[in-house]
């Protein structure tokens, strides 16, 4: 089998590959970030690049189909100046045998619109604008910047015999970041992509995509510069340095950001406060789920387009309150509410129905009346009549106490309570919840009032009711406060253990 694999690999290396000059231009960042977990990481990294680090490089975020990224997620990226790319759509024009998580990375680099690419993992947080790497002499001289891993391929790894290479005592390539000029390394990039297309075989010898680049570059004698500075190790984080030795990237491969859950505080991690602020912001914009509207007729799609053009509405909970909202073309509601993050128009036997969803649950369903107002009832607060009135429409305006910021905060509070109720009922979780409630109450005192209402309205004995009761007790007793961000002994917050096969050594 090894001889056959060697023959196939060398045949692939011998195939001439012309660089398609006409397809690529400029410099940019490519991030592979399909699915809710990696999207959370990518959004934080991109928002940090744009707002904190003033990075203006164009960004592409690659994913695998609508199951990994829905219209609201794409809209959130567009607001940061990042463009989403569905690899399945690209594959209709540029055929591929296999696409998965690691396999996507070389394919995305090959077919991104950029001539020069910084490939960045979604869970990799830069500490300053990395644009300068394209102008470094190490990159200009070779067309490739690689970064070293803390492990290396062992002398006995069969990949050396399969590739026909003599053993090299060199560090593995850590592919959480790399800079490539495609016009100069096109053949090697094509070979790395071919190896990943046969991951069912090659991943037995290599840990994912990381050393597929090293083997391809060595086989074709393609020049590259390997950063000479060893990475700095933090808890669950690999920090890579710039060519001069200063920390530039913080790869949280063992502690990916979580939207709903515990994010550990890592000693020595830079820009942590800024990242956590962005996480809190994202939690007010997105419910952490991949949302795609169901199949719909062309008629209701046209109605959706009309509603999105109208954009602004008054959402009225009759005899209760009202607030201004926008129905965005990407099916987001801005600002979102407790029961309305997403909207769409559904085909219904009784006529088109405007529906909302949040946290995986239907919020309300409305039908349009002759006066142009959409009317119906809430499914989450039974009996509550709802009206959606186009902005500027003639209708008495009721006084309300809830502003957009208040509603967003109440929505965040509700999601926090849901998350805590799903955790084991213990004192530590209750203390953490009490600390979070203190923080939210400093922003809006109505938070405590809402929690007390929740205590009276929850199903007696339910997990949510018990958690709320213990948190309120913690608020009343300051001695129960916990040290925010400290990791409880034995609590496994890491994303996953990092394991390498027998073909690697340190």
How does this structure look, described?
The protein has 506 residues and is an alpha+beta fold. It has three domains: 2-284, Alpha-Beta Complex (Spore Coat Polysaccharide Biosynthesis Protein SpsA, Chain A), CATH 3.90.550; 298-390; 404-477, no CATH class. The protein is 36% helix and 20% strand. The protein has 16 helices and 21 strands. Helix 13 (404-421) packs across helix 16 (463-476). The longest helix has 18 residues, at 404-421. The relative contact order is 0.10.
Task: Produce the secondary structure layout.
Blueprint: H1 2-14, E1 27-32, H2 36-52, E2 59-63, H3 71-78, E3 82-86, H4 87-91, H5 101-111, E4 116-120, E5 124-126, H6 137-142, E6 144-146, E7 152-153, H7 159-163, E8 177-181, H8 182-197, H9 199-202, H10 210-219, E9 225-226, E10 232-234, E11 237-241, E12 247-251, H11 272-285, H12 298-310, E13 312-317, E14 321-327, E15 332-337, E16 340-346, E17 353-358, E18 361-368, E19 374-378, E20 385-390, H13 404-421, H14 427-443, H15 446-457, H16 463-476, E21 504-505
Parallel strand pairs: 1-2, 1-4, 2-3, 6-9
Antiparallel strand pairs: 4-8, 5-12, 6-8, 7-21, 10-11, 11-12, 13-14, 13-20, 14-15, 15-16, 16-17, 17-18, 18-19, 19-20
Helix pairs in contact: 2-11, 5-8, 8-10, 13-14, 13-16, 14-16, 15-16
């Amino acid at each position: 089998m090894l001889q056959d694999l060697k023959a196939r690999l060398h045949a692939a290396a011998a195939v001439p590959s012309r660089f398609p000059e006409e397809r690529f231009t400029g410099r940019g960042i490519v991030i592979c970030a399909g699915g809710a977990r990696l999207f959370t990481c990518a959004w934080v990294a991109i928002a940090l690049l744009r707002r904190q680090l003033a990075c203006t490089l164009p960004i592409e975020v690659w994913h695998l189909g609508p199951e990994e990224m829905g219209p609201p997620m794409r809209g959130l990226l567009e607001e940061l100046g990042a463009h989403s790319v569905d690899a399945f759509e690209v594959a209709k024009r540029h055929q591929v045998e296999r696409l998965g998580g690691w396999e996507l990375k070389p394919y995305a680099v090959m077919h991104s619109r950029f001539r020069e690419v910084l490939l960045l993992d979604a869970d990799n947080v830069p500490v300053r604008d990395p644009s300068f790497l394209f102008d470094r002499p190490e990159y200009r001289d070779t067309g490739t910047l690689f970064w070293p891993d803390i492990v290396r391929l062992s002398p006995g790894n069969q990949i050396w015999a399969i590739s026909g290479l003599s053993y090299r005592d060199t560090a593995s390539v850590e592919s959480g970041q790399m800079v490539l000029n495609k016009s100069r390394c096109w053949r090697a990039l094509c070979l790395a992509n071919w190896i990943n297309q046969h991951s069912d075989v090659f991943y037995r010898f290599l840990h994912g995509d990381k050393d597929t680049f090293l083997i391809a570059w060595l086989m074709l004698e393609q020049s590259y510069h390997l950063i000479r500075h060893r990475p700095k190790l933090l808890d669950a984080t690999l920090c890579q340095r710039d060519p001069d030795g200063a920390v530039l990237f913080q790869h949280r491969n063992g502690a990916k950001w979580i939207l709903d859950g515990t994010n550990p505080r890592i000693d020595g991690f830079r820009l942590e406060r800024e990242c956590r602020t962005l996480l809190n912001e994202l939690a007010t914009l997105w419910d952490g789920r991949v949302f795609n509207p169901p199949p719909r007729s062309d008629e209701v799609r046209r109605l959706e387009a009309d509603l999105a053009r109208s954009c602004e509405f008054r959402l009225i909970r009759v005899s209760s309150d009202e607030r201004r909202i926008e129905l965005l073309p990407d099916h987001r509601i801005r600002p979102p509410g407790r029961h309305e993050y997403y909207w769409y128009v559904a085909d219904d036997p009784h006529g088109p129905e405007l529906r909302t969803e949040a946290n995986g649950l239907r919020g309300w369903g409305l039908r349009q009346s002759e006066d142009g107002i959409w009317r119906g009832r809430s499914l989450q607060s039974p009996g509550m009549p709802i009206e959606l009135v186009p902005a500027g429409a003639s209708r008495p305006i009721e006084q309300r106490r809830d502003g957009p910021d208040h509603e967003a905060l109440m929505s965040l509070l509700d999601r926090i309570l849901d998350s805590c109720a799903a955790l084991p009922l213990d004192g530590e979780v209750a203390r953490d919840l009490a600390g979070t409630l203190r923080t939210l109450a400093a922003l809006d005192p109505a938070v405590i009032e809402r929690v007390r209402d929740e205590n009276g309205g929850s199903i007696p004995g339910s997990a949510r009711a018990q958690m709320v009761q213990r948190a309120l007790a913690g608020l009343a007793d300051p001695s129960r406060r916990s040290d925010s961000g400290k990791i409880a002994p034995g609590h496994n917050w890491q994303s996953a253990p990092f394991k390498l096969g027998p073909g690697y050594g340190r």
